[in-house]
Design goal:
By secondary structure, the chain is α+β, with helices and mostly antiparallel strands. The protein has helices at about 5, 15-20, 25-30, 30-45, 50-65, 110-125, 135-140, 220-235; strands at about 70-75, 105, 150-155, 155-160, 165-170, 195-200, 205-210, 275-280, 290-295, 300-305, 320-325, 335. The chain folds into two domains: about 5-175 and about 195-245, no CATH class; about 275-335. The strands form three sheets. Strands 1, 2, 3, 4 and 7 form a five-stranded antiparallel β-sheet that branches. A five-stranded mixed β-barrel has the order 8-9-10-12-11. It has a two-stranded antiparallel sheet with strand order 5-6. The protein is globular, with a radius of gyration of 25 Å.
Length: about 350
């Protein structure tokens, strides 16, 4: 049964989220009120009237992109996407939507920031010209405080056919809300979780970058290079909130191992189970022995678990590690060493005490 908000003409998800309730906060925070609202937003996304308006707008936007723009259709293939979770909102859990149509978008500023950081940290680990600095590739593409760079990162629009399934009800349960307060007790497994409901997004977005500098014979190559960088950053790091939990990863669904299109073919591991990777970045927040690495011919992956080398390798070093073939080639996973099976003690065996 459709909610009253949607059945009374609510076809704009943004207006429903921002203007739906004018009562006291105590009423607004009731779980039933939030569920009613979120159901209305999901129903509005499935409304044919919204797609009828948004579809032509999407086509006009696509035609308005500058000549020579590089585009790529990327889907949230591994989990979900949440942009603007911390923005000001009556529900205290925001979501970035197009102001006119109420449809999820990824701001170009977020894409540029992600690409710039990925360029300096990941690509810059193996090629110094991609690090921040004067006269670097990084400065050319992304600029500095006085210059915007030669690449324009456009807002990523949702494909109209993704609308019916784009809005998804979600929940997070912080178990230790008082842990970081002064004089608070240490967290334990006996703390009561605090469920917080919110909306996240699924679907396929059209990502676009274009040349914004003066006319140059290398403009097409640099635009293509920027798109390659952005696609890798979205696949490896993700964009938006909760990326440490797997949110925000966008990849080409035709080639991703977790997408809805044709999966990339699995590769057989070498005979000894080990492959050579290049250390790109130390990831201490993930684990003391965790590194971002890349194997030739594969996407950037994560090296974690197992017994690491001592001392730990430096960025740029090449090491031999164990590849997990189940992880595929787009987001490969590696181990420092193979799993060591636990051998249970034998029962009723011969005593090892000395015999007379």
């Amino acid at each position: 049964m459709r909610s009253k908000l949607a059945s009374n003409g609510g076809q704009h998800p943004g207006l429903l989220l921002q203007r739906y309730f004018d009562g006291p906060r105590a009423e607004r925070d009731k779980p039933g009120e939030r569920r009613t609202l979120f159901k209305a937003v999901v129903d509005a996304g499935q409304c044919p009237g919204l797609e009828a308006v948004y579809g032509p707008a999407f086509s006009r936007w696509k035609l308005s992109l500058p000549e020579g723009t590089k585009t790529s259709e990327l889907a949230t293939v591994s989990n979900r996407l949440i942009i603007g979770l911390g923005s000001q909102n009556v529900l205290e859990t925001g979501l970035t939507l197009h102001h006119t149509y109420g449809v999820p978008i990824i701001p170009g500023s977020a894409l540029k920031g992600l690409a710039a950081h990925y360029c300096a940290q990941a690509w810059g680990a193996s090629e110094p010209k991609y690090r921040k600095g004067k006269d670097s590739y990084h400065q050319l593409m992304f600029g500095n405080t006085g210059d915007g760079g030669v690449i324009a990162f456009h807002d990523a629009w949702l494909l109209p056919e993704s609308l019916p399934t784009t809005f998804t009800r979600d929940v997070m349960t912080p178990h230790h809300p008082n842990w970081q307060k002064e004089d608070s007790p240490a967290p334990t497994d006996f703390d009561s979780p605090t469920p917080i409901s919110y909306l996240s997004v699924r679907g396929t977005f059209l990502v676009a970058v274009s040349w914004a500098g003066p006319e140059h014979e290398q403009s097409t190559k640099w635009t293509g290079r920027a798109m390659e960088l952005l696609v890798q950053a979205l696949s490896d790091w993700g964009v938006g909130g909760k990326t440490s939990s797997g949110y925000g990863r966008l990849s080409d669904p035709k080639t991703s191992t977790t997408g809805q299109g044709t999966a990339a073919p699995a590769q057989m591991p070498p005979s000894d189970g080990k492959v050579e990777v290049t250390i790109l970045e130390h990831m201490p927040k993930t684990g003391a022995n965790a590194f971002r690495v890349q194997e030739e011919g594969k996407g950037r992956g994560m090296l974690n678990h197992g017994i690491p080398l001592s001392p730990l390798p430096e960025v740029g070093a090449k090491v031999r590690v164990i590849w997990d073939p189940k992880s595929g080639v787009t987001n490969p996973a590696y181990r420092w060493s193979p799993d060591v099976p636990v051998v249970p003690p034998k029962r009723g065996g011969t005593s090892h005490k000395s015999q007379r």
